[in-house]
Amino acid sequence: MDYGTFRGLYTLLLIILMVGIILWAFSKRRKASFDEAANLIFADEEPTRDGNKNAGAKQE
């Protein structure tokens, strides 16, 4: 097997891997978990005992 054939097979492997990742990312089975992960930033934080969410922050 010469160098050109090896490079061609390697390129084919990378293309198949890329298509697999794209299919995995856009599959309907993964949509719910991706939507949940996307909305984690909007989840409410638990307040501390004194009711202040930013208990560690410096107050002026």
Provide an overview of this structure:
- The protein is mainly alpha-helical.
- The chain is built from two helices and no strands.
- The chain has helices at residues 3-25, 31-38.
- The longest helix is centred in the first third of the chain and has 23 residues, at 3-25.
- It is elongated and about 70 Å long.
- The N and C termini lie far apart (72 Å).
- The mean pLDDT is 83.
Key phrases:
transmembrane; membrane; 52% helix; Cbb3-type cytochrome c oxidase subunit 3; single chain
Order of helices and strands, N to C?
Answer: HH
Mean pLDDT across all amino acids: 83
Helical element count? Answer: 2
Instruction: Provide the structure class.
Output: mainly alpha
User: Compute the gyration radius: what is it?
Assistant: 24 Å
Strand percent estimate = under 5%
Largest sheet: none
Distance between the termini: 72 Å
Name the poorly predicted regions. Answer: none
In total, the number of strands is: 0
Q: What is the percent of helical residues?
A: 40-55%
Morphology: elongated
State the gist of this model.
The chain crosses the membrane at residues 6-26. This protein is an all-alpha fold.
Give the helices and strands, then pairings.
Elements: H1 3-25, H2 31-38
